[in-house]
Specification:
Number of domains: 9
Number of helices: 8
Strand content: 35-45%
CATH class of the largest domain: Mainly Beta
Number of strands: 79
Largest sheet: 6 strands, mixed
Mean pLDDT: 77
Shape: elongated
Structural class: mainly beta
Low-confidence stretches: 1-22, 94-107, 134-140, 655-708, 1097-1105
CATH architecture of the largest domain: Sandwich
Distance between the termini: 148 Å
CATH superfamily of the largest domain: Spermadhesin, CUB domain
Helix content: under 10%
CATH topology of the largest domain: Jelly Rolls
């Protein structure tokens, strides 16, 4: 082994170190800043064994460094070694061993190049080479080449030789030690001595294949060429291509690109691993082919792991909340068993052994289905099932009630039937039903019995015509008294009880009784409720009222002519309770009556004895003249009132029978439903045309002279009658036969004829020589209300007499609201507006269901024909009725009230739409509201339920019943025209109709427009009057507006209850044909609008339309 050792020595001493067998060689280096250290015979081999020492002195220890640069090292750790030793002082040189503890040592071998640095005084380099089994040409015998230098400590050392020299030359330092260069051995060239005759790129000499790079390597005496192969090649000359094995697709995955699994991959190729969908990859995601033919991460494998659980999807039904059906104590659970799918194609579903359908008792259940695949991934379908068996609490049986049966106990849907015990009546429904919310439905059940008999009757505050009766009712005990009836008995009719007061409120215990004078009374009281009446109470004490003068006059007074000049007066005698005392007599008054007020005669009178008398004959009166008759009743206490108005009668036997006039009217003149005398018609010039039986004509000398030579000699009585009757009004005039009669309604003349409902008879001569004209209305209608006037004229002078006609029709009743939806426990207020034409106050009654409302506290009269009913406890589906009656008949209006809970979700809310307030309405119901904008009638709007999400919504409003005043007034004028009263002309009606029809009309106005055209057709057919082209155009444009598409929705609503638009088209066609017949011959007519047209021409001989 060869060992190189460097040691720092003192400047004036020489260190001698030699082995016993080694060849000594040593050098002391001092005074030079730079130098070279080379093994003997370098670069050739040296002899062995060998031990050489080089000692370098530091001129400035501690401030300078000694650097040794090992430039070429052919040493081998098996044969030689370099040792570096440093010393601080001269005293250290006496040590015989270099391995003292006061210095560091470092060994180098194996061809490495390095730099050694020391700041101490001496640095010693020692080379030791020993004999080995290697031959003399061994690389370990060639030694080394190094340089050294000293420099201050703050300077940077030079690098190791920057030129490799390929071990084929010396690495020399520049003179200033600023760099290095190569000094090539013989046969080598190049900057780094890297070329020779085999490898030289400059001469394109390269023994390496596949673009390998050749390099000349000289190691000692040996020279060789080394090929540096490109990536992917190997071999001494790079002749072998390196490949990696074929890769396989992992299960449920693949390798890409395809060559990775089809052929061997070359160095640098990268193959990628991917997994199928729903699989998760583990292990390397790619591998790269290495230069050694192995893949990166060779021992690691890619796996595709199934981590996706099976999927139930929509087959898992989800949580359920079930309730029992009616009368079922268990709930049927029925659903389709869920199924699952998995990406692997295999799935197993485990679940409860019990399969639906199955009946379950009440409680909470959990059903779990588990789906698993081969990778043991699992999915769960968990169904939480809540089963509620709805039951109602034990029902309480009210007083006086018996249960006849329960359909299914207290389960939901069970019906309990209640009946009342004997003597009691069930109020409301007798059935209670267990509802879905576990509460008994159907309202409270009450069994009410007939009330107990009142007792302890007492009379107090006794007066001439009144007394207070008090009583004590029994406690109710489910026998309430709704009201009381007070009856009386008199000595005039013993044991015959009559009703004095039919209604005394149930909470009253006394009542003021109005009595008649001179009657002996006894009283009793009966309690009444919905079930029936109590027995009559005990009879009260007697009370005899004192006598007084009569307070009324006889009823049914009649005056009828008999014989030749007599007049019989008849009346109905006063009853027991009207005489007021003993000594009853009747006093009759009469006087003659002329038409003029100044012709009235003086009153005459006569007394008839006897309370039962009922007639009296007035003798020797003037025949056929009218007389006024009045009656008065007298008794021992005084005289009663005189009858009014006077009764009118004619002396003689002409059959005039007149009843007593109505209060507040003038003396009668017209005869209603009277038999008219034979008539003699007159020609246009006023001369008379005798009939077959010329009546007897009385002389006019019995009458005073007339102021104008003629006058109307009878008075007219204001008439009030029922619609649909026949009315005759006779106008009698005295004077020349040339007199003319005219009839007027208001300011319009009546031009009536045989075809009209109102007719005027020709002028006739009466038996007494007077002239008369009769106006007949048959039948009467509401349009006939008003003032009628008979005018008689002669030579420019006119006299007239008038009367007012009131046609009584059934009251009109309007109930607001017609329908209502209210919350539970909310009060309901209904307003009934009643109009009774004719000035007669109607009788108004309220009903809830079929029961009349008798509680006066719930009813109030608001005045102006308005009545209010307030209901505090509203019952679901109850019908409320307002009934108004008069002599013409009865009219009712009904309202239905729906009760909903506060949490109801099937109710359309209150809102304002198209200027109408629409109230809360339950789905399926219709809300009625007064028409807007001053129109009359009702508008309707329906609330429906959406089939998709079960939310309520409003439909569009329906105004088919709404009409406005302008259409109503025009229809009234048209009907008056067809009745014979010329309030206007048919041309004016057509013009007005055209002006008021617009493209947007209420459905009611559409109907009235059709009725107006129909009335115009009737007028045309009856009068045969010619019509103008302008009239037809006005009617055509009116019909065009009515039939506009803007009114389509109203027509569709109207057609639900009538023929709709076909009706007006039929009337229009009929009207245009009538006009065509009135055209002049050969004159064409052509009129059209946006949606209608009429074309016609009347030729000379034939009609073509």
């Amino acid at each position: 082994m060869m060992l190189l050792q460097l040691t720092l020595l003192a400047p004036l001493h020489l260190l001698w170190v030699a082995g016993s067998e080694g060849q000594p060689c040593e050098w002391y280096l001092e005074g030079k800043r730079n130098g070279t250290i080379t093994s003997p015979n370098f670069p050739s081999a040296h002899k062995t064994p060998l031990e050489c020492i080089w000692t370098i002195r530091n001129p400035k220890p501690g401030r300078n460094y000694i650097y040794v640069y090992l430039l070429q090292n052919y040493l081998s750790c098996q044969s030689s070694a370099l040792t570096y030793l440093e010393y601080q002082s001269v005293s250290n040189l006496t040590d015989s061993y270099i391995y003292s503890s006061n210095f560091n040592s470092r060994n180098d071998c194996g061809g490495s190049l390095h730099v050694i640095r020391s700041s101490k005084a001496f640095l010693q380099v020692k080379l030791t080479s020993m004999l080995t089994r290697l031959s003399s040409t061994s690389s370990g015998l060639f030694g080394f080449n190094a340089t050294y230098t000293t420099m201050p400590t703050d300077n940077q050392p030079m690098p190791i030789c920057s030129q490799s020299c390929s071990e084929a030359g010396f690495c020399r330092s520049l003179q200033d030690y600023s760099g290095f260069y190569c000094e090539c051995f013989e046969g080598f060239s190049g900057r780094h001595c890297q070329y020779n005759d085999i490898c030289d790129y400059r001469r394109r000499l390269n023994p390496c294949l596949n673009n390998g790079t050749c390099t000349v390597v000289k190691y000692g005496a040996q020279t060789s060429v080394v090929c540096a192969c490109q990536r992917g090649y190997l071999g001494e000359r790079c002749e072998t291509i390196i490949t990696c094995p074929v890769l396989q697709d992992p299960p449920d995955g693949k390798v890409s690109p395809p060559p990775c699994r089809d052929s061997r991959s070359r160095v640098g190729d990268t193959c990628y691993f991917t997994c199928d969908n729903t699989y998760v990859q583990s292990g390397p995601s790619f591998k790269t082919c290495l230069s050694d033919g192995d893949w990166t991460q060779e021992k690691e494998f890619t796996a595709c792991r199934d981590v996706t659980p099976p999927y139930f999807g929509d087959t898992c039904p989800g949580d359920m909340n079930l309730r029992n059906e009616k009368c079922e104590n268990k709930v049927l659970l029925n659903f389709t068993v869920p199924t699952a799918v998995d990406n692997s194609g295999y799935v197993k579903v485990d679940g409860p052994e019990t399969k639906p359908p199955i009946y379950l008792a009440g409680g909470q259940y959990t059903w779990i289905y588990t789906a698993s695949d081969d990778a043991k991934n699992e999915a769960r379908c968990q169904i939480a099932i809540g089963v509620q068996v709805v039951k109602c609490p034990t029902i309480k049986v009210p007083h006086n009630v018996e249960v006849t049966g329960k359909s299914c106990g207290s389960l939901y849907g069970s019906e309990v039937q209640f009946v009342c015990k004997e003597g009691f009546k069930l109020m409301g429904s007798g059935i209670r039903t267990c509802g879905p919310n576990g509460e008994w439905e159907g309202g409270d059940v009450q069994c009410i019995g007939a009330p107990y008999t009142p007792f302890k009757l007492e009379l107090s505050d006794k007066r001439a015509t009144s007394v207070i009766l008090s009583w004590t009712p029994w406690p109710s005990d489910h026998r309430p008294s709704e009201h009381f009836i007070v009856q009386y008995e008199t000595t005039f009719e013993p044991s015959k009880w009559r009703e004095m007061i039919g209604f005394v409120p149930g909470n009253a215990t006394k009542s003021l009784l109005e009595l008649s004078p001179f009657v002996n009374y006894r009283f009793r009281v009966i309690a009444v409720n919905w079930v029936g009446r109590s027995d009559p109470s005990d009879i009260s004490e007697s009370y005899h009222t004192p006598p007084s003068a009569p307070e009324v006059f006889p009823k049914e007074i009649q005056a009828q002519g008999i014989y030749n000049r007599d007049l019989i007066v008849r009346w109905e005698p006063l009853g027991w309770y009207e005489r007021n005392g003993p000594g009853v007599q009747y006093k009759i008054f009469w006087r003659i009556l002329y038409c003029n007020a100044e012709l009235l005669g003086d009153w005459e009178s006569s007394i008839v004895q006897g309370e039962e008398k009922s007639s009296y004959v007035i003798l020797n009166l003037i025949r056929d003249l009218p007389y006024q008759v009045q009656l008065q009743v007298l008794n021992n206490q005084g005289a009663g009132p005189i009858s009014y108005p006077p009764v009118l009668g004619h002396a003689g036997d002409q059959g005039h029978v007149l009843l007593a006039g109505r209060p507040g009217t003038r003396p009668p003149c017209a005869t209603f439903e009277a038999t008219l005398p034979p008539r003699i018609t007159s020609d246009s010039d006023g001369s008379l045309t005798p009939g077959e039986n010329v009546p007897w004509m009385s002389s006019a000398s019995t009458f005073p002279d007339l102021k104008y030579g003629f006058d109307i000699v009878n008075f007219f009585e204001d008439y009030s009658g029922i619609v649909g009757t026949r009315l005759l009004i006779t106008c009698i005039a005295r004077g020349p036969r040339r007199m003319h009669f005219k009839w007027f309604k208001g300011e319009y003349r009546i031009m009536a004829s045989d075809w009209t409902r109102i007719s005027v008879s020709p002028k006739v001569i009466r038996n007494d020589g007077d002239l008369e004209s009769v106006l007949e209305i048959n039948p009467t209608t509401p349009l006939d209300r008003g003032t009628y006037r008979c005018a008689v004229s002669d030579q420019g002078v006119e006299r007239s007499c008038s009367l007012n006609i009131t046609v009584l029709t059934k009251p009109s009743v309007q109930l607001d609201p017609v329908t209502a939806t209210v919350l539970v426990s909310s009060p309901v207020k209904l307003t009934c507006t009643v109009r009774s034409p004719g000035g007669v106050e109607p009788q108004v009654k309220w009903f809830i269901g079929k029961d009349r409302v008798t509680d006066l506290r719930a009813i109030s009269n608001l005045g102006n024909g308005m009545y209010r009913l307030t209901v505090l406890g509203t019952v679901e589906g109850t019908k409320y009725t307002c009934m108004a009656s008069n002599a013409a008949g009865t009219t009712i209006a009904e309202s239905i009230v729906t009760v909903v809970r506060k949490d109801a979700h099937d109710v359309c809310g209150q809102e304002t739409f198209q200027n109408v307030e629409w109230g809360m309405t339950q789905a399926g119901g219709v809300y009625y509201q007064l028409c807007p904008g001053g129109s009359t009638g009702y508008a309707t709007r329906q609330c429906l339920l959406n089939d998709m999400d079960f939310t309520p919504y409003w439909l569009e409003p329906n105004f088919v019943q709404c009409t406005t005043y302008d259409f109503e007034a025009l229809l009234s004028n048209t009907r008056m025209l067809t009745s014979g009263i010329e309030v206007t002309s048919v041309e004016k009606i057509a013009e007005t109709l055209n002006s008021i029809t617009t493209p947007n009309l209420y459905g009611g106005n559409l109907r009235l427009a059709s009725d107006i055209i129909q009335e115009m057709i009737l007028y045309k057919e009856k009068t045969r009057r010619k019509m103008s082209k302008r009239e037809l155009e006005d009617v055509l444009w009116s019909a065009s507006n009515v039939l506009s598409l803007y009114n389509k929705e109203e027509w569709m609503n109207l057609q639900e209850g009538s023929s709709g638009s076909s009706w007006i088209l039929g009337n229009l066609t009929r009207y245009s044909r009538l006009v065509t017949f009135e055209l002049e011959e050969g004159k064409p007519l052509s009129t059209s609008t946006d949606n209608l047209g009429t074309y016609g021409m009347l030729p000379s001989r034939e009609l073509g339309v």
